[in-house]
Amino acid sequence: MIKKIVNFFREYNSRNDEERRTDRLYAVSAIFDTPNEIMAAASEVSGRGYKKFDAYTPYPVHRLDQAMGIKYPLVGPIAFTGGITGLFLALLMMWWMGSKDYPNIIGGKPFFSLPPSIPITFEGTILLTGFATVVGMLILLNKLPKINSPISDTEFMKRVSSDKFGIVIAADDRMFSETQVTELFRSLGASRIENIYYKPSNLTDKTPIFNRKFIMTLIGVAAIAAIVTYFTLNIVLYQVVPFDWMWKQARINAQSESLFFANKSGMREPVAGTVARGFMPYEYKGLPDSAVRLLANPLPVSKNVIEKGQEKYNIYCSPCHGYFGDGDGRLNDQFPKPPSLHNSKVLNWKDGNIYHVITNGQNVMPSYEGQISRDDRWAIVHYVRVLQRAKNAKDQDLPK
Amino acid sequence: MSYDATYTRELPLVTSRADFKEIDQVLAHPTETKPTKGWWIAFGISFTALMIGALALTNTLYFGIGEWGNNQPVGWAFDIVNFVFWIGIGHAGTLISAILFLFRQRWRTGIARFAEAMTIFAVMTAGIFPIIHTGRPWLAGYLLPLPNQNGVWVNFLSPLLWDVFAVSTYFTVSLLFWGIGLVPDFAVLRNRTTNKIKKTIYSVASLGWTFSNRNWSNYERAYLILAGISTPLVLSVHSIVSFDFAVSIIPGWHTTIFPPYFVAGAIFSGFGMVSTVLIIVRKVFDLEHIITINHLEKMNKILLATGMMVGYAYGMEFFIAWYSGNTFEQFAFINRVFGPYAWAYWTMVSCNVFFPQLFWFKKVRTSIPITMVLVILVNVGMWFERFVIVVTSLHRDFLPSSWAMYIPTITDFGLLLGSFGFFFTFLLLFIKTMPLVSIAEIKAVVEGAQPSIHPEPHGEGGHK
Amino acid sequence: MMMELTTPKKLPASVGKWGMILTAVGVIMGGAAFAVDPHRAFFGYLWMYMFLVSIGVGSLALVALEYLVGANWSTPFRRVPEFLAGIILLLVILVIPLLFGMHDLFHWTHAEAVAEDPILKSKEPYLNTTFFIARTGVILLIWLIFYYLFTRNSRKQDISKDPALTASSIKYSAIFAILFILTISFTAIDWMMSLEPHWFSTMFGVYYFAGTLVAAISISAFISVSLNEGGFFGFKVDDEKYYSFGTLMFAFNVFWTYIGFSQYMLIWYADIPEETFWFMNRMEGSWVYFSIGLLFVHFIIPFLMLLPRSSKVNPNLILYMSAWLIYAHAYDLYWIIMPTYFKDGFVFSWNELGFLVLAFGIIALVFNYMASRFNIVPVGDPKLQRGLYFHLN
Q1: How many Cβ pairs closer than 8 A exist between chain A and B?
Q2: Cα distance from A320 to chain B (closest Cα, Å)?
Q3: If 0-12 CB within 10 Å is exposed, 13-18 middle and 19+ buried, where does residue A105 land?
């Protein structure tokens, strides 16, 4: 396997990459030896009125663009546009996420305010300015990448990338004539004049990097990588400590077994005589008469209390008694139907009696002492009164 | 300029007037040859350190961050110290490449590329720490502004989130800056190499750069803009790192001078690290006439200046703590200087303020061995500065009953060592694969590289 | 390649005349302000004094900065900040009335208030009249000494053309750089931070330092550009040379913003009452509009105006923006100093205006006097020719 790969690269390396040139002329190039010569030459070529020409230098030569007559106003505006976009996007993001979509109070600070938003706004501005500058310069203005231009792989390119200064007049310039251009270069003192011809691949427009097979391979690799990453992170890794979201932990779950204790129960019983917080024994267990006589509702009749009572009634009472106390609850078929709460017996009960029934249970109804707290039981009593009054409303109860 | 005196004239940026071919030769040489024995030894050492760090990291990931020495109340310790330290190291790169570029300090050319690479690797190193510090780093994606399963977004009021934005922006923009600097150099390598594989790689990496002057002029403008935005960016990044501490109400953390003080410290430590590495690299790769003693002297001057800025902040903090009349503030600073971690404080002050005073003497500035010792001390001192800020402020705060000491564990040290391994491994790979000094830029500052005539422009403009 | 220097034109007489008029008007208005309400007038006077400190000492710092970083472009214009630094000579006299107004200005000078305030009591070793005056004296002395050293070297060089003088100035400037930051910080703490003796911020010295740089570079830019456009230097450099002025104004101003924002944001965020009250004073009543105005005057407007490259080489724009930034610095100082006196809301009237007029009168007179006595171009400086031939990139 490895041998195969090595061989492949060996072969690739030894392949002759010199592409034969076609006979279609791309441009005429000239090489100059000093920066002064290139300045003079660029100035002269530009002065003669050539438009599609370019100077080639191993490093930026100061003021050469002035000699060539280039103006370059675009990078700045592109960068500025990027910056402004970044600024507003960052502000918008923070405002929307932090104060519109899911406002959260943090440290008593406003959902959105300017001082703490400045850092991220600033970073957003810089980030998009940077992207805009680089993308704008490389791709929009310089039209890169162009890996396979006719000028690459020429002797001319080798020299101007190292120590010489070159100038090129393109064959599609309006004023181009091979003899005139050559003559012009000679008169300017060029040390080497060379015609550059198109490569066959330039004319057929087949850049090896951008051919369909390559692109498809890239997309395929990307898709496979994405799927593999997804499964690794979300399925495979999920099974492995410590990546399992702490599902497996060294602890005893409720109701589970533990060999540590003699009775093999993971849970411990409370110490004998333990009283839960807020626990009050019910004094009237089995003594309905005293309950009726002595108990009075301690809660005020207020909107909050009644709403609390409604909530608890709907949870604990309504399954049998129904939402309105008619005894038509949702469990109708499974349990005996309880009597209506609007019969005259219950209507005439005192609060303490209702409370006692909830706490103590009656006939089939079990005690709800363990499920519903004392205050909630009293709140339910209030709510039952509300239901009774609503069912037996009189004229004067109606709002005017 | 007949009465130009020697010390007001700029020293030549490249000693021993090299011609362009020779520059190509020298700078491309490390990328075109097999690694030397020295390189392998260095790589071996740093790779070993990296592996030790990997062990420590595995330990941390498997058993959790309880393997570290962090405790209550010292919830932040080596993790954050290392983060701030490495982020600081990263600042010199952008400073050299951007700020000195804007100030037209042309001597930066020799060291800019290298320093930028250091920035990138230092920020990468730094980035590891806050992520592993979260305890479950594989969930770090939620640091980005993504809603979690309950639809809650990230907390935009948290300076830790600002850090995420600042550090990632800084990394990206530094990478762009470094990347566009490398484009023309890859093109040089592309034209030099005879190896087909290398050629393909370099062609793609250089994007087919043609050295056309129409491209150069856009390129230079873009470079200027990138330098322009990197300058405030570099200030903002360490300022935001300082906000992590300064927006709190912990005495010793909440002081308003933190942002510029952190920035000065970052530049200081960054230059320390750049000097440390450059002194070795210029020797090993025979770049002594490109990275000259003059460069080192200028960097030493900057070290002196930034060291004093840091000293100013130490003094001002102390003075205002007293002046504030706030007992907690006063105690925090007295505890730093005379408390159980006083040794760390005095290490910091000596390495950062006292020893660099030797740079007042030209003899010291131009002596390589002394510089080497001093810049290593700067690195040590700046690491301790972060230690002092993080640990001593936390270990004794408002409530004496919860005071505690912090003692690092072997895992902590393993990660610290590993961070150096990580950084140097990348740096060594960079040295071997890319030109250490910007070839195009260095050519542009060679004597005689720029034309002495300025012809008047012709025509109204070129073709589009 | 030498640019011939012709003899510089004399400054027009109107500079001196306007200096006299402004000073006279300022003295009359200031005197009237003292007559009407001395307590209020002391605050106005302090405002003027701090403004002159910014310009005088800031200019000296610019001179030192040029030596320190070895800048060439600014050498032809260096005499402008050197002349402006002459204001330091007057500061010694101008400070005297303030010493008599300390009781009006500083709450901590009231012995009865200090006695019942434990925090002020604890600050007494620093905030007491004797030490305060001693500090002010020492600081002024340091400025005078360095003013003397720099100008002496510079003037000597006009005649001797001895480059060794530049070397010695470089050494002085390294020392002055340190002393400048220390003295300007403590000036800020003493004269402005201690107006609210309970308030403290480690950044305050740096904040004022950043402001002085903005003021000094702006006034240097204003004078250099107007003189160069009028041909008063004996040479005429092209507009490209203004680029550095524009850039530095922009950069120093952004630095000021950065410092100001950091100080505000950190105090806003931590929200500790003993720090926030200083900003609360500036957020209450009509001061809030003044505070918001500061953001626009000192940051947003100059930032947007100076951002494009083209505006940094445009002489008219540099003139406008430098004048604007000088105004912005005066605005900033007003914002720092005056809320201590005008607790209820923003007030600005002839009582304060007079002192601003006086400040500009003094600046014009000092500059005119210096320009009539000394060379307006450092003709003996070895860096001068390179400065004249300075090119961007």
Answers
A1: 269
A2: 35
A3: exposed
Asked whether residue A9 is assigned to any structural domain, the reply reads: no
Query: With an 8 Å Cβ cutoff, are A115 and C264 in contact?
Result: yes
Residues of B in contact with C177 (CB under 8 A): 305
B180–chain A Cβ distance below 8 A for any pair? yes
CATH number for the domain including B63? 1.20.1630.10
Range of the domain at B245: 20-398+411-444
Residue B5 lies in a domain: no
Asked if residue A272 is part of any domain, the answer here is: no
Q: Report yes or no on A107 lying in a domain.
A: yes
- Domain count across chain B: 1
Asked whether the beta carbons of residue B256 and residue C70 sit closer than 8 angstroms, the reply is no
Q: From the list A47, A51, A56, which residue is nearest B212 (CB)?
A: A56
Which tens digit of pLDDT belongs to each residue from A29-81? 999 988 888 888 988 888 888 888 899 999 888 888 888 888 767 888 999 99
Helix, strand, coil shares of chain C, percent, nearest 5, are 80, 0, 20
Domain span at residue A320?
Answer: 288-397
Question: B463 in a domain, yes or no?
Answer: no
3-state secondary structure B2-62: CCCCCCCCCCCCCCCCCCHHHHHHHHHHHHHCCCCHHHHHHHHHHHHHHHHHHHHHHHHHH
Q: Note whether A58 and A169 are same-domain residues.
A: yes
* pLDDT confidence tier of residue B389, bands split at 50, 70 and 90: very high
C167 neighbourhood in chain B, CB within 8 Å:
5, 7-8
Inter-chain CB proximity A130 and B229 less than 8 Å:
yes
How many structural domains is chain A composed of?
Answer: 3
Q: Are residues A31 and A165 located together in one domain of the fold?
A: yes
Across the interface, of C264, C269, C393, the residue whose CB is closest to A62 is C393
- At residue B462, the 3 state secondary structure works out as coil
Q: Are B300 and B368 in contact (CB under 8 A)?
A: no
> Shortest CA distance to A129 belongs to which of B161, B169, C250?
B169
List the subunits that have 3+ CB pairs under 8 angstroms with A: B, C
Query: B51-102: per-residue pLDDT in tens?
Result: 999 999 999 988 888 999 999 899 999 999 999 999 999 988 887 888 878 8
Q: E strands along B95-234, which residues?
A: none
Which residues in chain A touch residue C308, judged by CB atoms under 8 angstroms apart?
Answer: 76
| Residue A107 Cα, gap to closest chain C Cα (Å) | 9
Q: Give the span between the Cα atoms of B11 and A209, in whole angstroms.
A: 46
Residues pairing with B212 in the sheet: A56
Q: How confident is the model at residue A210 (pLDDT cuts 50, 70, 90)?
A: low
Token pair 């980035």: residue:
B127
**Contact between B458 and A47 using a beta-carbon 8 Å cutoff:** yes
Two tokens at C258? Answer: 């950065």
Please, which residues have CB within 8 angstroms of residue A70's CB and are 6 or more apart in sequence? B213, B214, B217, B461, B462
Residue type, A349: W
pTM, whole model, 2 decimals? Answer: 0.84
Predicted confidence at residue A4, as pLDDT, reads 80
The answer for A16, left when phi > 0, alpha when psi is -120 to 50, beta otherwise, is: beta
- On chain A, the residues whose CB falls within 8 A of the CB of B180 are 134, 137-138
Q: What does the pLDDT read at residue A17?
A: 58
| Residues of chain A numbered 13-72 and touching chain B (CB < 8 Å) | 13-15, 17, 34-36, 38-40, 42-44, 46-47, 49, 51-72
Same domain, A91 and A216: no
